[in-house]
Amino acid sequence: MSNRKLRVGVVGLTVGASHVKDYASSDTVKEIVLCDVNELRLKEIGDKYNISKKYTDFDKMLKEENLDAISLAVPNFLHMRLSIQAMEAGVHVLCEKPMARNAAEGRKMLDASQKHNKKLMINFNQRFLHECQMLKSVIDEGKLGDIYYVRTLWQRRRGVPWWYPLSSGKEVCGGGALIDLGVHVLDRAMWFCGYPEPEWVLGNTFCKVSKDEAARKGIHNFELEDMGVAMFRMTNGAMLELEASWASNRENEAITTRIYGSKGGAVLHSVVGDRNASSNQVFLEISGVVQDIPLDDKVISKMPNVRQAFLDAIINDEEVPCTPQQGLKITQMLDMVYLSAENGTPVKFE
User: In order of start, what are the domains of the chain with their CATH numbers?
Assistant: First the structure.
């Protein structure tokens, strides 16, 4: 392990506040520089973590600060432009999910990373949960056998992010619940399965619950999906079902992934706000009887958090754990869901 310490910038201090918190507690960070167009937010975060270098101008920060790395926690429409600009300036990038509004933008980001030899990591932080790390170990040990069906979802009862500029629609966001929440659970499902190649998808999107609330908030052209669903077939024959909702008439907010394999199965089920209702288990046949085996998510994983993993990859000159190729794959898959919803037919991946 190198003793090198990094100078890190954080751009966007609403979502980016958690990035600042992790960097401030990291032994591998020498200095943090902040950037946000909101001067009050800049002062608040700067004062909280005793950070003196603060900018409202991204271009000026890149020019004046000799940064090693940057976290981008900005609206989706800025991901491509700011990522490429940073990599052109010689700075490694951790970009919040989704990678971009669409696959065309994601491809340009990947190309820039390769052209300028800079690391580009996508913030797929679900992978770093202890229970996800432990389940991944079980899968990699072959205990579940051949995985043939996965159902993964993030469904909210009511949780549209009204603080976001939703009235601008896909032009700013790229999409709704699928690209905001679905991106997380789709990545973790694909990661569990070793990122298989998708063959086709049948999907649909809905905006059934949130239009009235949007109108009450003065958003009369609300067009983003508050729920999206999809069924993917992989080239290896496996099926993957995806559900994501900002608002749906259900009992609670849940994040769930169910895995069915030839030797065993598993479930990661988290009820937001009710830890007692959560369940993380593996199901294995032992002596002819299927046993329920809890995954103890209280065990401290050796895996660092997503921000530290990014820093470690830079310091050790290793591949980032959440690669731009994977980020692009997820973006392509969501593009195809939207296309299938628009056409009303299954869509094949080329």
Answer: 6-123+304-320 (3.40.50.720), 126-303 (3.30.360.10)
Specify whether the CB–CB gap between 98 and 74 falls below 8 A: no
Q: Could you tell me if 237 and 230 are in contact, meaning their C-beta atoms sit under 8 angstroms apart?
A: no
Q: At what angle do helices 39-49 and 17-24 cross, to 10 degrees?
A: 20
Distance CA 322, CA 309 (A): 9
- Retrieve residue 210's tokens: 């949130």
Q: Give the residue carrying structure tokens 């050790």.
A: 316
- pLDDT one-digit tens code per residue, 81-110: 999 999 999 999 999 999 999 999 999 999
77 pLDDT more than 80: yes
- The full length of the chain comes to 350
pLDDT digits (tens, 9 = 90+) for 195-245: 999 999 999 999 999 998 999 998 888 989 999 999 999 999 999 999 999
Taking each helix axis from N to C end, the angle separating 103-116 and 79-88, rounded to the nearest 10 degrees, works out to 10
